[in-house]
Amino acid sequence: MNVLITGASSGIGKCMALYLLELGYNLFVVSTDKKDLNKIFNRYKDRVYCIEMDLSISDNCYKLYDLLKDKNIDILINNAGFGDAGNFSETDLNKEMNMINVNIRAYHILTKLFLRDMIKNNRGYIMNVASMASFMPGPYMATYYATKSYILNLTLAIYKELEKDNCNVNISLFCPGPIDTNFSNVANVKFNTNLIDSNYAACYAINNMFKKKLIIIPPNMKLNYIFTKISPLSLVLLINSKMQKRVVR
Q: Under CATH, to which class is 2-247 assigned?
């Protein structure tokens, strides 16, 4: 079986790729830096095809699909993404536009194109990597939280459509909290909480995807999820604002 993973050169994407290799899958891995991919996957070069591509450019998303549309992709993992932090009025607009392109447009394009093929074959898995940020507004990380909310609602809607059509294609949403990856450096934040191990998070996500779970939340974040569901929006905003303000560097 063949798997496509975006953002596979570091963090949770890399860990997911290595775990799927252990499970016997063949991989197509995507990153903006092919050298990093080659370093990680050189020993698996007979089972891993490395692709250097900047998915903030929409045309590249179509090129990626054209490159792989005849490869019978059984699993798509949309993982590429990044964040930024600071007052919305002061954060860099160009960085935010690139964030929207990677965190939303790339997910949207790749999900639609590969989903169509999976529906024709009546099989396949898609996992969109989102965040606990999907479930709430995020003062001081406003754009990042908004992008993840988009992915949450897109995934939920697609799931219901597939269910109504009795389609044997499954779509999942992985919503971790802070993970021990390079995300915090790119996003310009420093989390004041214990970070979940990226290998554990990757295995947990993949295992639950195969169980066809819709929303996948690591155990250490489930109370947070319940809190966001039962609390008034004003309280969620107040607490999240204070927490985010503390982590912005």
A: alpha beta
